[in-house]
Amino acid sequence: MIKVALIYKKNYNFFNKQHFDQTTYYFLMDALRRNKSLEVSYFPCENEFDISKLKGKCDAIILANNGYDATPEILTGIKNSTIPIFSRTADPHHAKKYNQIELHEKFKIDCYWGLQPKNYFHKFYPKHFKYKNIFWGLEPSLNKNLKSYKSRIKDKIVNSGNVGRTNLKSKLGHIFSKDINNSLYFYKLRTICNKLPYVDYAGMKESKYINENYSEYLSKYRAAIATGTYYPVVKYLEIPAAGCLTFMEITEKNHAEYLGYKDNETAIFINEKNYKTKFEEYLNDPDNKKWEEIANSGRDYTINELNNDKAVESLVELIKSFIK
Question: Does one domain contain both 152 and 224?
Fold first, then answer.
């Protein structure tokens, strides 16, 4: 049994049950506990935590992320601690903005883990920082008792998540701004898909999904869009898991092929050149049985191979490699 301590701030937004995005909560609060190889102790704190009190009591420390929003600024005794520390990475492109290179030394992080590809992580972090790609974020229990494929809306394709503004001012800002925290930058294809008359989009309002139960919302539709310009996001798992025929952006730029989906078998691969053709092929013959077969295969693959329990197993293997 590996003894693990999870250290986090009490006011960490993603552990708030009222927050619209519960993926971090489900993984660190629920999935970690389910793994029989781990004995997890939780240490919510204010802005300071004494690491020295964990000496001899745990084998590894997990940080919810490598930023001050989740991790206390003061970790007393960290310099003398020999307990390996593993951190979920926040958005790698924010490493410089939030001084996370400096925090690497301050928090004595041994290894990072996250959904993003390793090469994207090392685009913003030094090459000698250790990182493991872990497909986390999908809680299978959220995808039970959903609508059957045949009973869903078939003449529309659903699009969801943040999209960029396409007015001239926003486009110029996107071109000249040094701050890349921009939905048009990260979700270009998602944004342009909204111009199509057969794409339904509900989006978000005040940082909340208009439809709070995301899986149930997705299951109203037979087909849905999953995109990410530079790396795949959790929607790449959530959408096929909800039983949707998933039009999935897979390109050399976003390296999303590492998720293991297969074109025309578990998803329909799209890019900025072919997306309209792919959409229309489906819409011109929505009752073709091959679409349901692809949707079902995508759902089975995602739920069986890319779920949170599998992700925890990968995290356990990572921890073991440091405590041998």
Answer: yes
Higher pLDDT, 216 or 203: 216
User: For the segment 135-156, what is each residue's pLDDT rounded down to a tens digit?
Assistant: 999 999 999 999 999 999 999 9
> In this structure, what CATH number is given to the domain that contains residue 256?
3.40.50
278 and 155 in a common domain = yes
The whole-number pLDDT of residue 286 equals 99
Range of the domain at 83: 2-137+307-323
Do 315 and 263 fall within a single domain?
A: no
DSSP conformation class of 5: E
Measured from the Cβ of residue 45, the count of other Cβ atoms closer than 10 Å reads: 15
**Distant-in-sequence contacts of 123-130, Cβ < 8 A, 24+ apart:** 123/92, 123/93, 124/92, 124/93, 124/95, 124/96, 125/92, 125/95, 125/100, 125/101, 126/101, 129/104
The C-alpha atoms of residue 110 and residue 98 are separated, in whole angstroms, by 19
One domain for residues 267 and 214: yes
Quick: pLDDT tens for 276-304. 999 999 999 999 999 999 999 999 999 99
Instruction: Give the number of other Cβ atoms within 10 Å of residue 15's Cβ.
Output: 19
> What type of residue sits at position 5?
A
The two tokens of residue 271 are 């890019």
* Rounded CA separation 105/307 (Å): 32
- Grouping H, G, I as helix, E, B as strand and the rest as coil, residue 64 is coil
Return the number of other C-beta atoms located less than 10 Å from residue 180's C-beta. 13
- The 3-state secondary structure of 193-235 reads HCCCCCEEECCEECCEECCCCHHHHHCCEEEEEECCCCCCCCH
Residue 64 contacts residue 88 (beta carbons within 8 Å): yes
d(CA 273, CA 287): 25
82 and 191 housed in the same domain: no
